[in-house]
Amino acid sequence: MRVDEFDYELPPELIAQEPLPRRDASRLMVVDRDSGRWIHAHFRDLPRFLRAGDCLVLNDTRVRPARLYGRRTTGGHVEFLLLQPLDDGRWLALARPGRRLRPGTEVVCGEERPLRVRVEEVRDSGERVIRLEPPQGETVDETLHRLGRVPLPPYIRTELKDPERYQTVYAREEGSVAAPTAGLHFTPELLEELQDQGVRIAYLTLHVGVGTFRPVTAQRVEEHRMHAEFFRVEPEAAAAINAARSAGGRVIAVGTTVTRTLETVAADDGTVRPGSGWTDLFIYPGYRFKAIDGLITNFHLPRSTLIMLVAALLGKERTLAAYREAVARRYRFFSFGDAMLILPGAVPAGHAP
């Protein structure tokens, strides 16, 4: 398959630049996985489409304040995006302007009690290995929470007034460079309502990595290679998911990160096994799903691995038709945009795309 088969026309004004005042006020396109039919609703209507015994699986990762601004000791502004910790105070990072950040370059971030950064290595991919030296009496994490900022995707050009709006309400374990955005629509009240009607809630962790910011540059889908991301599935979560499936409930992944994690740890019969590790699973049309029945997801960038995953579940032509409908209906797109629910039997007969 060619990557350009997953392209679509998106007016720039439909890219949401800020979140809605209320998380669950987002619109929700509900698409029947079996027929491709759709109806329009709001995210607060989600309980209408789930039933007792279903299991909703969410990613509890938290976005790290991974963006740092500073100045080289020789002059000039510098920006770092911390990707992951390595060892002994070293981190893997993206940096700009890259051409000026050679090994040995020193950067100072902050004015009072500054963080000192030293570039130690430049990798072939352009990523830097840097060493962070916090001020005396402060840990690296404490310094990052004081000086760092939550990174937003490059297509969001406005300053976020409340950084917590780029975190899910259930975010717990810090480690991502981007939010699992399908979960941004949930409120504590909505989660409680779902549990009260008998929907199981299970949590896993996948720390979203730099691959979420990088476009697919290959011409053919099969040539693309995913960046590996760390995941963990606790035994209690695996047990809840497996119990729901055994009892005839549906397993609904909240987001592509949850989908990739579950499909990584699932046996051929769909049984989810607990564990942790790194996954670079790339899901695109032709993939046979083992673990999930449905998916809640936002509307994704053209030609991205995320829209390819959606197309693997719903079918390429149905996916593109749903996206054209979303554009026509002026849905809001990407991280702060509206959502889609893909679920078998979700739309009654008589509704036609």
From TrEMBL:
This is S-adenosylmethionine:tRNA ribosyltransferase-isomerase. It comes from the Bacteria. It catalyses: 7-aminomethyl-7-carbaguanosine(34) in tRNA + S-adenosyl-L-methionine = epoxyqueuosine(34) in tRNA + adenine + L-methionine + 2 H(+). The keyword S-adenosyl-L-methionine applies. It is an enzyme of class 2 (transferase). Pfam families: Queuosine_synth (PF02547). GO terms for molecular function: S-adenosylmethionine:tRNA ribosyltransferase-isomerase activity. Transfers and isomerizes the ribose moiety from AdoMet to the 7-aminomethyl group of 7-deazaguanine (preQ1-tRNA) to give epoxyqueuosine (oQ-tRNA). Monomer. Keywords: Cytoplasm, Queuosine biosynthesis, S-adenosyl-L-methionine, Transferase. PANTHER family: S-ADENOSYLMETHIONINE:TRNA RIBOSYLTRANSFERASE-ISOMERASE. The lineage of its organism: Bacteria, Bacillati, Bacillota, Clostridia, Eubacteriales. The keyword Transferase applies. GO terms for biological process: tRNA queuosine(34) biosynthetic process. Belongs to the QueA family. The gene is queA. HAMAP family: QueA (MF_00113). One of its GO terms (cellular component) is cytoplasm. NCBIfam families: PRK00147.1 (NF001140), queA (TIGR00113).
